[in-house]
Structure formats: C-alpha cells, structure tokens
Specification:
The longest helix is centred in the last third of the chain and has 50 residues, at about 400-450. This protein folds into 2 domains: about 1-120 and about 180-250 and about 340-395, FAD/NAD(P)-binding domain (3-Layer(bba) Sandwich), CATH 3.50.50; about 120-180 and about 250-340 and about 400-435, D-Amino Acid Oxidase, Chain A, domain 2, CATH 3.30.9. It has helices spanning about 5-15, 35-45, 80-85, 90-110, 135-145, 155-160, 180-195, 245, 265-270, 310-320, 365-380, 400-450; strands at about 25-30, 50-55, 70, 120-125, 150-155, 170-180, 200, 210, 215-220, 225-230, 250-260, 275-280, 285-290, 290-300, 330-340, 345-350, 355-360. The chain has about 475 residues and is α/β, with parallel strands linked by helices. A hairpin with a 2-residue loop joins strand 16 (about 345-350) and strand 17 (about 355-360). Helix 2 (about 35-45) packs parallel to helix 11. The strands form 2 sheets. Strands 3, 4, 5, 6, 11, 12, 13, 14 and 15 form a 9-stranded mixed beta sheet that branches. Strands 1, 2, 7, 8, 9, 10, 16 and 17 form an 8-stranded mixed beta sheet that branches. It is built from 12 helices and 17 strands.
Length: about 475
C-alpha cells in the first residue's frame, strides 16, 4: 500500500473513538450524512454562526466521499451544450459560475495549514479518444469567452508528447483545476467543521424523520434530535425513512486501483503531472506517491468487492500504455455514487425546512462543495440561487430495471468509445500512409524531372533518332455540310 494511503489509514484510526448521539439534542440545522456534501454544509453553516449537528450511520467518508481521486475543476456531468439547451444561456452561465465557486471553496480549505499532507497539485487534462479538432475549437471559444474559464487547446502532437500513447488525440488543459488527496480531504473537512463548532455523530443511523411543523424531529436508536432545518445529504444511503428519495438515484459503483512503484519509466511515459481524464468518462488517472499510478476505470450498478476488478484495471493500463508492461495492482478501492437521470445534482428545498443535497455521481468534488455553500447561505441568508436547479426535478431512477438498463448503457458506452477510438486510429494510420505514398511519388517525380537519365556504367548511350521529315501543309478541301443539317 502506498505511503499516502498508509497515512490516511492511520488518520482514520484516530477516529475509532467515534462520538455517537446518546442524548437528546436541539440544533438549528441537522445534516444527515457525513460525506463531502454533508460536511461542506456543516462547515459553511457553522462558520456563519448556526448550531449544526451531523448524523452519520457509519463513519466519516466511509463510501464514495472517502474514495475520490481528488480532481477539482468547474462544470457538471451534463455537457455544457446540453445544459444551455435545457435551461438557457444565462442560467447555464450562472450555474457554471457557482461550480467555479465550489472549486475555490475546496482550494481554500485544502491548504497545508488546514490539512497537513493534503498535497494539492495543479492542472487537469481532458483528452479525446477521437480526432475532434473542430469541436475542440468551438468548445474553447465558449469556455474562454462566454464562461470566463481558463482553458487551453492541445494539438495531437502536444498530447502525445505528454502521454506516450496513440490512444488520445486532442486535449483541453485546465491550468487552474487541481487535485488533492481525496481521503485526506474528507477527514480534513470534518476537522474544520468541528473546529468551526459543528458536532458530528458517527454510528448514528436515522430511524425516522418527522418534517412537519417548525421544529423537525429526528429519531435515532438512542436519542432524539430537533432542528429547524434538515438537510438530506446521505445520497443513496438515506435508508428506509427516505427510500423514495433514494430511489431517484441510480447507484453506480466505481473502482480504482493503485500500482506498485513503477520507477522513473512512468514519468517518461506519462509526463503530465496532473489528472488525466478522457472525454468519454471511461478512464481517469494520475501519478501519486512519486511513481505509482492511480487509475479509475470499471463501474457497475451493483456492489462488488473492489479486489475483483484489479485485473480489469491492470488490463486497461496495459492497453493504453503497453510500455509499462503488466503492472502490479497493490491497492483497490471503490464506492457507490448516486447518479441522476438528468445528469445534474439534486440541490434545493423539498418543502419548508427540508433540503436535499445529493446526486453527485460523475459531478466532481466542486459540486458537493458548491451545494454546501449554497444550502447554508440559503438557510441563513435567504440566498435563493438554489432555484437554478429547479428545472432538474426528482425523477425515479427505475429501480432494479433502471440498474439493469444502466449497466447495459454503461457497457454499450464503453464499447462505443472503444469502437470509435479504433476507427479514429485506423483513419489516422490511413492518412499517414497516404501522405507517405504522396511523398514518395513526389520525390520520384522530382527525380525524373531533374534532366536526362544517365546510362548505367559500361553501357553506350543510344544515338538520337534522325529527325522526321516535315510534311508539306495541305490545303483542306471545303465540305458541304448541308446534309448534316
């Protein structure tokens, strides 16, 4: 196991003496779920002066929030063009601004002073599996000019200089995006929230919720809690009391692995220092602990032991970077995210005093941070920007049928991506061969046009043939073409 993840495990060991809610309590805000979203809400609300209690059924960051690759950049899972088509240009731009604020919230928290050893590094590169230069230009113009986001377009040569593989073509580089140690961040967030005055209770599942009246009532196995506001940030794990809400999310488990140390060769093959993700959402990777490769790829709509997918991660790495050989996977981890049908997070007020912050699967760490800021400020300041998410309603995810369909769609998407990539590489090789053929033909033509050919040594040149006699000009006989008319 790598140094980073060993240190995280030691940090987690410090939380073994977990505080359970064993006495009745009153608070301004009760947050259910101690993941990234719930802890961001608790931190922001406590900083703004509210009394906050966080209830967690297991322990801090136990699922997807504690198994993040740690990439932080603006945007949502829903492509920008589709977002504009759905809600209009002005609202899309305002939502994008909020997503940038969420990223800055993470940056401000993830400092060495606040979270020792968090190790932020800059730069995220999104690469294309196909030759999409035309689409790249229009996207860059939109990001730079309309959405005030710094982004650079990388040509194929530059991408392949940084990543020694022919699998990728063009790229978009985000210099202000960054990455942190995801496991350390979630525990650092809890420490900051506690420092700000929030109370976090682990091993405290919610048995029932009564959200009627001004003061809401929450029942746990050993105590009761009353609060003016309840924020549901438990994602797909809200359980029986809120099963209908949980069923608006499609559970998707994503798995990642960390290789054994690869030495200096990994830096020769992967020269980019930040996170790399492909435009189809299949692969996401970066170098950690100096010379190890952390790679996220497989996903399922059912729970499985992460170790089952070590072979899949190893084969995927070898298919993209065969120069690395058959790498050893020393650590596997995974977590379940909740994905919405419409591809946007669920953020807002369900009824007076009852809030939801979930659906962050494929969204990125910036969105859970954004939700934390937005909901805390909505409760305490009356900020109503959460209404920008109103067009993205709670939609049933289809239950078991939805899971089966989601798995099939995922398989189809990966297969389509692989087929499109293979076709793009075939066309590229064909173009290279055509250019080489044209170059050889041009060289042959130039050689043929430089002057008379010299005979081989020992061969006497043929004498030039005598000139042909010039025929005398003959007056043409006029013809009557009346017959042809």
């Amino acid at each position: 196991m790598s140094e980073t993840f060993t240190s995280v495990s030691q940090e987690e060991a410090g939380f073994r003496e977990r505080a359970r809610l064993s006495f009745d309590l009153d608070a301004d805000i009760c947050v259910i779920g101690a993941g990234l979203a719930g802890l961001s809400i608790a931190l922001e609300a406590a900083r703004l002066g509210a009394s906050v209690a966080v209830l967690e059924g297991r322990h801090i960051g136990w699922n997807a929030s504690g198994n993040q690759l740690g990439t932080v950049m603006p945007g949502f899972a829903l492509p920008l063009a589709e977002l504009i088509e759905r809600i209009g240009f002005e609202d899309a731009r305002e939502l994008w601004t909020l997503s940038k604020e969420g990223a800055e919230f993470v940056r401000a928290n993830a400092t060495e002073e606040n979270m020792p050893g968090i190790g932020p590094t800059d730069g995220v590169l999104e690469v294309s599996n196909v030759d999409a230069g035309d689409r790249l230009i229009s996207r860059l113009q939109m990001l730079n000019e309309d959405f005030d986001t710094e982004a650079e377009g990388w040509q194929v040569d530059r991408v392949r200089a940084a990543l020694k593989t022919d699998r990728y073509f063009h790229g978009v580089y985000y210099p202000k995006a960054f990455q942190v140690d995801g496991r350390k961040y979630v525990h650092g967030l809890a420490a900051l929230a506690r420092r700000a005055g929030a109370r976090i209770f682990e091993d405290t599942p919610v048995v029932s919720i009564d959200h009627s009246g001004i003061r809401k009532r929450i029942v746990t196995p050993s105590a009761r809690l009353r609060a003016t506001h309840i924020v549901l940030a438990g994602n797909i794990h809200l359980g029986a009391p809120l099963r209908r809400l949980s069923e608006t999310l499609l559970p998707v488990w994503r798995y990642a692995g960390i290789t054994a140390p690869l030495g200096e060769r990994v830096h020769e093959i992967i020269a980019f220092k930040g996170s790399v993700m492909d435009s189809d959402g299949v692969d996401h990777f970066r170098i950690v602990d100096g010379d190890r490769l952390m790679w996220e790829s497989p996903e399922t709509t059912w729970a499985a032991r992460p170790q089952r997918f070590a072979g899949s991660v190893r084969r995927r790495i070898r298919s993209i970077f065969p120069q690395l050989g058959n790498v050893e996977i020393t650590d596997m981890f995974g977590g379940a995210t909740g994905q919405t049908v419409h591809g946007m997070p669920q953020i807002g007020q369900l009824r007076k005093g009852l809030w939801v912050a979930s659906g962050f699967g494929r969204q990125g760490m910036n969105t859970s941070a954004m939700a934390g800021q937005m909901i805390a400020r909505s409760i305490l300041w009356g900020d109503e920007r959460w209404k920008l998410f109103s067009p993205f309603e709670l939609v049933w995810a289809g239950g078991t049928t939805g899971r089966v369909a989601g798995q099939l769609v995922g398989i189809w998407g990966r297969a389509s991506s692989a087929a499109a990539g293979s076709l793009a590489r075939y066309r590229e090789r064909a173009r290279v061969k055509d250019r080489e053929r044209e170059a050889r033909l041009a060289e042959a033509n130039r050689a043929a046009g430089t002057g008379p050919r010299r005979p081989p040594p020992g061969v006497r040149p043929r004498p030039a043939p005598p000139p042909k006699p010039v025929a005398e000009a003959v007056e043409p006989v006029p013809q009557d073409d009346s017959a042809s008319r």
